[in-house]
Write a sequence for this structure.
């Protein structure tokens, strides 16, 4: 499983959780700040596996 941070068409941030076979498991709400999306990812990771991969596909 891994997280992918993305930017929406209205320039807000969101993330998707994907399985090892690249299937989308879940999509988050949108966040104005990238840091808010990252914080939510970290909260989820700490409850599952802190070593889970995060891929940032935004330009920031």
């Amino acid at each position: 499983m891994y997280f992918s941070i993305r930017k929406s068409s209205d320039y807000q941030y969101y993330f998707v959780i994907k399985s090892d076979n690249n299937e989308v498991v879940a999509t988050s709400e949108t966040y104005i700040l990238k840091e808010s999306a990252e914080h939510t990812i970290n909260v989820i990771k700490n409850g599952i596996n802190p070593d889970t991969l995060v891929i940032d596909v935004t330009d920031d």
In short: The longest strand covers residues 2-7. The CA atoms of residues 4 and 55 lie 5 Å apart.
